Amino acid sequence: MSHPSPPAAHDGGRSASALPDSTAWEPYPEPLAVDSAPLPEYGSGSLADLLPTLAAGMDVPGTTATITELTPADRNCVFLIDGLGWEQLKAHPDEAPFLASLLASSRGGTGRPLTAGYPATTATSLASVGTGLPPGAHGLPGYTVRDPGTGALMNQLRWQPWTSPRVWQPYPTIFQLAHDAGVHAAQVSSPTFENTPLTKVALSGGKFLGRLAGEDRMDLAAEQLAAGDRSLVYTYYAELDGAGHRFGVDSDTWRGQLMHVDRLVQRLAEQLPPRSALYVTADHGMVDIPFDEQHRIDFDEDWELRAGVALLGGEGRARHVYAVPGAEHDVLTCWREVLGEQFWVASRDEAIAAGWFGPQVDDRVYARLGDVVAAARDDVLIIASEREPKESAMVGNHGSMTPAEQLVPLLEVRS
């Protein structure tokens, strides 16, 4: 941990061993064993390790440099591009020539990616980035999860229904720790995010500066970097992810957004003040899923999958399944029989023991996890056409532990 240790926790008992290199991610024999899922590199090369490493390089108390390949800088800027997976970036060098030219710089010049963490989804990843903690500790372990206090599903991206942010996620952010240590901390993002609960629990601390246009954000981020002898600046771009969800990563619209992102990164890189490091990363990658019954399994029309299930959480490629009390074993058995050749299907305790959510899970987070957790290996979704009509209609999807979703860049430019 990079700052005060979490309270009593369920010990995962397994350290991450999979290297974030797509050539090492081979198919696994079927049926899929829980411990065959390729783990995120918690503690050495995941998104949760990035800000603690940068802050430790600026002598922020309570932080530790765990991404050992990175060299400290006095001024650090993290530009997070929502949905820019490592696999997708490598596949589109013509649309992103500047970003492609930086591929060899990734992860301190090793040319290797980071891992997002499980599930590979925006709310979870942003919380991992901002707090420096894995999902089992910060407690945002999915797109939707059950609130143990109410028994209802809670959408952690939109924060619906509302619950107290500081109760849900009590740890300080790295930005707050940096600000308290005298580092100039700033976030430059869309004004719509300034007062959202997700921003409060994941990215608060220091200044928030809202700008609508991407170009304005790049210019202001460079200004904020120069505003302190030690600076930690975060900026964000969401539209690439939106294009992927709506049209897919194989669409002209997505490629057009990637071209725009490439120009934004170059604009910021060309304005870096002295003694600065710019890191370009992402919260997850994405895969396009065909619209047919073979690739989209509809929970709302499948009586076997529905049997004994009280709530369906998560998202299509990373499901939390909450059973009717007493039906947990039967639901696990059924989901394994129906989906076990395409999904890693685990009980809550099996997923924790395998380390899916990090080396440990806080007690307050334990019951937020599904009684059954299902992570897709193949190009397949568990949709819910009636309960989740908008999500079920998306072309591009993410959430699981495959390279296309899990691997993200950490491109570097220094001045």
Question: Describe it for me?
Answer:
- With 415 residues, this protein is α/β, with parallel strands linked by helices.
- Helix content is 31%, strand content 20%.
- It has helices at residues 50-57, 86-90, 97-101, 106-109, 122-131, 135-138, 165-168, 174-180, 197-202, 214-225, 239-247, 252-269, 303-306, 328-339, 348-354, 363-366, 389-392, 403-406; strands spanning 9-11, 75-81, 114-115, 144-146, 153-155, 184-189, 207-210, 231-237, 276-281, 287-288, 296-298, 309-315, 318-323, 343-347, 360-362, 372-376, 381-383, 396-397, 407-408, 411-414.
- The strands form seven sheets. The protein has a six-stranded mixed sheet, with helices on both faces. A four-stranded antiparallel sheet has the order 12-13-16-14. It has a two-stranded antiparallel ribbon with strand order 1-15.
- It is globular, with a radius of gyration of 20 Å.
In short:
Helices cover 31% and strands 20% of the residues.
Main sheet attributes: strand count, strand direction, barrel closure = 6 strands, mixed
Give the percentage of residues in beta strands. 15-25%
The span between the termini is: 30 Å
Quote the average pLDDT: 93
Round the Cα radius of gyration to an integer and report it. 20 Å
Helix tally equals: 18
